[in-house]
Design goal:
With 201 residues, this protein is mainly α. The chain folds into 2 domains: 1-98, Up-down Bundle (Four Helix Bundle (Hemerythrin (Met), subunit A)), CATH 1.20.120.1760; 103-201, CDP-alcohol phosphotransferase transmembrane (TM) domain (Four Helix Bundle (Hemerythrin (Met), subunit A), Up-down Bundle). It has helices spanning 3-11, 16-35, 44-68, 74-97, 102-133, 146-162, 166-200.
């Protein structure tokens, strides 16, 4: 589906690592847009969404380019994963710093929901990394993988353009879904390892 875009990126001389860096920069631009949002400048939410989705597009394309043109490396996968974590942290931190969750929940609960969403986002990725290090495949396990999180955040940000408190409610939804995903993955790993132990016995 995205092969033509991957071919175009390759013809431009963009390696997977370069695309990953571009995606990271776009995520930082999204974070900068979020942190500057006020009731008087809600149009920045649309800009934040554009940068966020463009960053997600790069995160998809870099892998396609790597696989299509045999540029897959262990370091490339590691580098992309590290940049993704920093990108996620920057966006959530920007929303917390701007107080965009507070409009729905007040300062204390707005901060709590924001930190819970940030922590859950990091832990979703961490649980996958730990499970895969143990030889277990975790792709598609859980409700809120990175693509889903980005789409939810983009959707509530667009709604927030018309009604700013919507972003706070969206962050609360992400906090619940990400931490539920962590629990789903923990249970999945437990069941698989228990089954392997039973077979080995």
């Amino acid at each position: 589906m995205l092969t033509s875009q991957a071919n175009a990126a390759h013809k431009l001389g963009l390696t997977p690592n370069k695309i990953s860096v571009i995606g990271f920069i776009l995520a930082l631009a999204s974070a900068a847009s979020y942190v500057l949002v006020t009731a008087a400048s809600s149009w920045l939410l649309i800009l934040a969404v554009v940068f966020l989705l463009a960053s997600g597009f790069c995160d998809t394309i870099d892998g396609i380019v790597a696989r299509t043109f045999q540029q897959t490396t262990v370091f490339g996968g590691f580098f992309d994963s590290v940049l993704d974590r920093y990108a996620d942290a920057a966006v959530y931190a920007a929303i917390i710093i701007a107080g965009l969750s507070n409009l729905a929940w007040g300062f204390i609960w707005g901060s709590v929901w924001g930190l819970a969403a940030l922590t859950g986002s990091m832990m979703v990725s961490y649980t996958r990394a730990r499970a895969e290090a143990a030889g277990l495949k975790m792709e598609s396990v859980g409700l809120a993988e990175r693509a889903e999180r980005m789409l939810i955040l983009a959707g509530v940000s667009i709604i927030a353009f018309f009604w700013l408190p919507a972003l706070g409610y969206g962050i609360a939804v992400l906090a619940v879904l990400t931490n539920l995903t962590v629990i789903q993955r923990a249970l999945y790993v437990y069941k698989i390892l228990k089954k392997k132990a039973a077979i080995a016995a």
